């Protein structure tokens, strides 16, 4: 029986087994792509941009790799999304979550091949995930009460996170940097007040934490280079003449002296504005826009330090840390909130001069200055440090801590295995599969380090059969080691997020039984293409127009 | 969607324990090969007898240079790993200023050894870790070899500057340029912060004509500009009072568009008179402060001076230099110890700078303005570079920059070390000995790296037309006997004590070359995939 075509030309439809296969394969390909970056001996990837300049990024960060990929597979996109969410929520574990989801799907594929209904697999996975979370909850350590121990926990977490990154050689140094920075935040997760400045030159070890705010700008000519007890006005205003903003406005005069008068009046307006700003009782003025020569000289005469062309990010942050407001009118000095700091001075980092504001109102603020051989190194260092800062700030709030090195996965796998044995029915196959997927993580960590994964994981499993075992994979010596002794810790929040979002993503992809691809937009004929987009919107299609040049 | 989708490989079965790593190996190999190709391209320019490269840029311009950073910068490489080597040379340029070729050649040699280690089945992270350890050890060895130097020891500073210059096109002028570089850097060192040198305080002015011999350091200011003068204006002023102004001496102009309506003939006369009076008024105010030299900032909005104002300025015996870039204002005010003036209202005597002499000098075809004998001069210096053609001048400038950097390195870290391949061969020897006491694969890797470092003396000898193998073996022999300063004397074509030959370089250049090269190689080793992204 021949059925008429339902879809438009070029639109395609895949059903049932084929659809499921397509999404499995896509998701697994993504997981395989990033899985080599997992663990302390994970490898890096070069990301080569197809855009202009063909820029090159070298990275080990799962989220960065995934979000810059071209992807044409629906299921793969789901995995990229969960990695993004993981990045936003907890900052680390972006690779783990994708790898775990990939492994769950790999196991599911086998079960589907064994004629187990996807829904049964899903309910099995759900039970297993719940059981795994419980297992973790029972094993967590919480040292919130003991400040000393808590700090050492944080140090360990930072070191564990950093050990898989480019910073691993100087991880002690950077872990201390990150912990100090996060401790200053006093429980806030607002990483805005930690500023990271990258300056090429020197080596990674020369990076340092500065208690204050550093602005990468220059002080105007002839102005004081050092101010104590500064009152800072942060502004976003045009410092040239207030132009009449009506198109075609022009001055019509009949003599040269009148032109001179108008010019004088323009200058006078500028001067007035500067006077108004000075009337705020300030000795430091920071503007987002340019300060021209004339106002600059006026400021210099008044002994005020003026900084021009501070970028948008710069002034927002400066206003935040000095406790001031960004002003754009200056008529009411009493209503404008000024920022304060103890000392403004010029410092030299490498070859460049920067301005440091120290003793700022908001004590949480600090600046981390990163030094390194090249831009590639610096960019990657920034990403790594950002991960560590995210995890630490999350841990300060939720201080539950687990061991690392595949230990949590082994604990979970053991409990899930127990559950499988107790569960009657087909579901138990799915639960067992879940435990196998969990085991894949230590396997991959070992594989990446060039170790004999099968041997190690088997040993680890045997160790975990004992009660209260702290065994995990010690990648450095290539054997099973005691994670408590090695000081490898991870935040509970990260592990929980990995477990739950990977399960959810796998579940979502499993539910798919049909993929409908909408007809691509026609390139040759733009007007026609627009019509198509419009019609597809009208028909309620999920056509996403992609802007092509 | 023209964007290529990622290729989706067939799901590999996980049941087998053997993992197929073919693709990763291929990528790594391709990266290393590409990076080595870059290193090979600059290899021949290493050392005093190294050759130059001629680079013709797409727009037809030609550059002849021996400077590794410049060569690599102009080479348009596309392969990502090769790009990293270009970056490496840039960062060496930023960190030390010299040794930009050395760092790339070392990285290339390390990569070559890594490749053979990889093919022996050693895991890349093991290689990377051993490399890190070896680098730390190497820094210790280099530091132990170093000789401390005092800034007052001008001779030693000159020696190291001339070592850097010897490998350049302008090597025959090293006796002139080396002391010049040393004096220039020492003159900008602030006694309050003795470790910091800001090379921006040294301004290099290039002027075509003459030969490199005529290059000179000017204690004062040099402008590559003519004095703007109408008939009778001064071109030489003694006891100058100098004003740096940021306004223009021309008829007024408003920011809002303006037009002057002239309705009859008499009005025209009046307007002309008014213009004259206006300018005259300005010049009188300037004259009243005793100012006799004006430096006028460039403005895109209106003319700095008009014929009319020039005429009056000439009458008032004021020397005018116009079109000073805004970026230079800071340097100029610092040098002259004066303040810029943005408005005629603020024209006061206390904002002026003083100098004994301002004069226009003709140099070759063009003219320059020199300000000398500045009162309370800031810690800045000018160097006037001359040369018979643009290519020579450019190369002379680059070489001088390298020499300045070398001196700066010595100011930052006051140690120097023997040149001529001596430190590298000593490193190779000591690392080789150290490798024997290491356990496991680390020792094997460190030994390979020790061998890799011999590439520097090898290349030096090769470029000088000597027999590299004979030279390197002899060098090894000398070092084994404890002559740690034995190096290749390229001039004599034999091995001598290189310290006695005055071939020295700053410690910072060598240490930075080792750390940067290893950091880059480790990064390349850790890469196992190239992903095309948007």
From TrEMBL, chain A:
Gene3D superfamilies: GroEL, GroEL-like equatorial domain, TCP-1-like chaperonin intermediate domain
Keyword Chaperone: yes
This protein's GO CC annotations: chaperonin-containing T-complex
SUPFAM superfamilies: GroEL apical domain-like, GroEL equatorial domain-like, GroEL-intermediate domain like
GO molecular function per UniProt: ATP binding; ATP hydrolysis activity; ATP-dependent protein folding chaperone; unfolded protein binding
Family of the protein in this entry: Belongs to the TCP-1 chaperonin family.
PANTHER family found in the cross-reference section: CHAPERONIN
Function description: Molecular chaperone; assists the folding of proteins upon ATP hydrolysis. Known to play a role, in vitro, in the folding of actin and tubulin.
Protein's name in the database: CCT-beta
From TrEMBL, chain B:
Region entry Disordered, spans: 1-21
SUPFAM superfamilies for the chain: GroEL apical domain-like, GroEL equatorial domain-like, GroEL-intermediate domain like
Major localization class: cytoplasm
A cellular-component GO term for this protein: cytoplasm
Keyword Zinc part of the UniProt annotation: no
Pfam assignment, any one: Cpn60_TCP1
An example molecular function term from Gene Ontology annotations: ATP hydrolysis activity
Subcellular location(s) of the protein: Cytoplasm
Biased composition (Low complexity): 1-13
Record key words, sorted: ATP-binding, Chaperone, Cytoplasm, Nucleotide-binding
Superkingdom classification of source: Eukaryota
Main function: Molecular chaperone; assists the folding of proteins upon ATP hydrolysis. Known to play a role, in vitro, in the folding of actin and tubulin.
Family statement: Belongs to the TCP-1 chaperonin family.
NCBIfam families tied to this protein: chap_CCT_delta (TIGR02342), thermosome_alpha (NF041082), thermosome_beta (NF041083)
PANTHER family: CHAPERONIN
The name this protein goes by in its record: T-complex protein 1 subunit delta
């Amino acid at each position: 029986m021949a059925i008429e075509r339902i879809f438009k030309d070029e639109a395609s439809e895949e059903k049932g087994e084929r659809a499921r296969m397509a999404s499995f394969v896509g998701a697994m390909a993504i997981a395989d792509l990033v899985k080599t970056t997992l663990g302390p001996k994970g490898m890096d990837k070069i990301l080569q941009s197809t855009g202009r300049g063909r820029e090159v990024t070298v990275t080990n960060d799962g989220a960065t790799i995934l979000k810059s990929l071209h992807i044409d597979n629906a299921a793969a996109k789901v995995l990229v999304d969960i990695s993004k969410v993981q990045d936003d929520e907890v900052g680390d574990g972006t690779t783990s979550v994708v790898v775990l989801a990939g492994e769950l799907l790999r196991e599911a594929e086998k079960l589907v091949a064994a004629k187990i209904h996807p829904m049964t697999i899903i309910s099995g996975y759900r039970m297993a995930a719940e059981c795994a979370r419980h297992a973790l909850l029972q094993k967590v350590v919480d040292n919130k009460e003991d400040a000393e121990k808590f700090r050492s926990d944080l140090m360990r977490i930072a070191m564990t996170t950093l050990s898989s990154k480019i910073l691993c050689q100087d991880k002690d140094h950077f872990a201390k940097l990150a912990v100090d920075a996060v401790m200053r935040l006093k429980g806030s997760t607002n990483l805005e007040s930690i500023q990271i400045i990258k300056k090429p030159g020197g080596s990674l070890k020369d990076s340092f934490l500065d208690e204050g705010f550093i602005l990468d700008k220059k002080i105007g000519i002839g102005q004081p280079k050092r101010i104590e007890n500064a009152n800072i006005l942060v502004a976003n205003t045009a410092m040239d003449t207030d132009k009449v903003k009506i198109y075609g406005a022009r001055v019509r005069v009949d003599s040269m002296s009148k032109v001179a008068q108008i010019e004088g009046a323009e200058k006078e307006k500028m001067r007035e504005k500067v006077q108004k700003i000075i009337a705020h009782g300030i000795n430091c003025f920071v503007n987002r826009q340019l300060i021209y020569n004339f106002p600059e000289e006026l400021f210099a005469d008044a002994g005020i330090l003026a900084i021009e062309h501070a970028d948008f990010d710069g002034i927002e942050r400066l206003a935040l840390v000095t406790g001031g407001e960004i002003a754009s009118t200056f008529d009411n000095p009493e209503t404008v909130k000024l920022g304060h700091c103890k000392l403004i001075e010029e410092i030299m980092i490498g070859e460049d001069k920067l301005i440091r504001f120290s003793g700022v109102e908001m004590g949480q603020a600090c600046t981390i200055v990163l030094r390194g051989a090249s831009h590639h190194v610096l960019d990657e260092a920034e990403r790594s440090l950002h991960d560590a800062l995210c995890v630490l700030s999350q841990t300060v709030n939720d201080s539950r801590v687990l061991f690392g090195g595949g230990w949590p996965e082994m604990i979970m796998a053991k409990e899930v295995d127990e559950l499988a044995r107790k569960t009657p029915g087909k579901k138990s196959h799915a639960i067992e599969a879940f435990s196998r997927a969990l085991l894949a993580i230590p396997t991959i960590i070992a594989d990446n380090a060039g170790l004999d994964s099968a041997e190690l994981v088997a040993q680890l499993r045997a160790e975990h059969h004992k009660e209260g075992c702290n065994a995990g994979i010690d990648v450095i010596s290539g054997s099973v080691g005691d994670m408590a002794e090695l000081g490898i810790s991870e935040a509970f929040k990260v592990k929980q997020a990995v477990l739950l979002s990977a399960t959810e993503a796998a579940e979502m992809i499993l539910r798919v039984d049909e993929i409908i691809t909408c007809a691509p937009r026609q390139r040759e004929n733009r007007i026609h293409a627009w019509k198509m987009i419009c019609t597809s919107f009208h028909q309620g299609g999920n056509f996403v127009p992609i802007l092509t040049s | 969607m023209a964007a290529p989708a990622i290729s989706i490989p067939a799901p590999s079965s996980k049941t087998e324990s053997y993992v197929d790593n073919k693709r990763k190996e291929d990528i790594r190999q391709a990266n290393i090969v590409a990076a080595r190709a870059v290193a090979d391209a600059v290899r021949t320019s290493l050392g005093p007898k190294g050759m130059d490269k001629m680079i013709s840029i797409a727009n037809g311009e030609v550059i002849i240079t021996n400077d590794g950073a410049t060569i690599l910068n102009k080479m348009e490489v596309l392969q990502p790993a090769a790009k990293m080597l270009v970056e490496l040379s840039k960062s060496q340029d930023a960190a030390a200023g010299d040794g930009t070729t050395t760092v790339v050649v070392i990285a290339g040699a390390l990569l070559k050894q890594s490749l053979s280690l990889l093919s022996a089945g050693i895991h890349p992270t093991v290689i990377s870790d051993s490399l890190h350890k070896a680098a730390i050890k190497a820094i210790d060895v280099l530091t132990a070899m170093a000789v401390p130097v005092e800034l007052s020891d001008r001779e030693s500073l000159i020696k190291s500057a001339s070592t850097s210059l010897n490998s350049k096109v302008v090597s025959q002028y090293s006796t002139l340029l080396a002391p010049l570089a040393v004096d220039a850097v020492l003159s900008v060192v602030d006694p309050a912060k003795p470790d910091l040198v800001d090379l921006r305080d040294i301004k290099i002015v290039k002027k075509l004509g003459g030969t490199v011999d005529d290059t000179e350091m000017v204690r004062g200011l040099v402008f590559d500009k003519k004095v703007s003068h109408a008939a009778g204006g001064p071109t030489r002023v003694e006891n100058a009072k100098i004003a740096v102004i940021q306004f223009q001496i021309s008829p007024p102009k408003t920011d809002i568009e303006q037009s002057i309506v002239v309705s009859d003939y008499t009005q025209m006369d009046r307007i002309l008179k008014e213009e004259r009076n206006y300018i005259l008024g300005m010049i009188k105010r300037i004259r009243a402060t005793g100012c006799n030299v004006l430096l006028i900032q460039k403005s895109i909005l209106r003319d700095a001076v008009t014929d009319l104002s020039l005429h009056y300025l000439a009458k008032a015996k004021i020397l005018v230099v116009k079109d000073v870039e805004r970026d230079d204002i800071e340097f100029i005010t610092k040098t002259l110890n004066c303040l810029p003036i943005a408005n005629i209202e603020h024209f006061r005597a206390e904002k002026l700078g003083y100098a004994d002499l301002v004069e226009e000098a003709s140099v070759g075809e063009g003219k320059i303005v020199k300000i000398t004998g500045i009162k309370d001069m800031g810690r800045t210096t000018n160097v006037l570079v001359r040369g018979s053609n643009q290519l020579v001048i450019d190369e002379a400038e680059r070489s001088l920059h390298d020499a300045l950097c070398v001196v700066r390195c010595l100011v930052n870290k006051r140690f120097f070390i023997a040149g001529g391949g001596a430190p590298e061969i000593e490193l190779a020897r000591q690392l080789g000995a150290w490798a024997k006491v290491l356990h496991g694969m680390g020792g094997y890797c460190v030994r390979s790296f020790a061998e890799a470092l011999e590439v520097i003396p090898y290349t030096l000898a090769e470029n000088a037309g000597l027999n590299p193998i004979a030279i390197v073996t002899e060098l090894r022999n000398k070092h084994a006997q404890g002559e740690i300063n034995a190096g290749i004397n390229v001039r004599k074509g034999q091995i001598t004590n290189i310290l006695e030959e005055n071939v020295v370089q700053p410690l910072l250049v060598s240490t930075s070359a080792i750390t940067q090269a290893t950091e880059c190689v480790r990064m390349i080793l850790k890469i196992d995939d190239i992903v095309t992204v948007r």
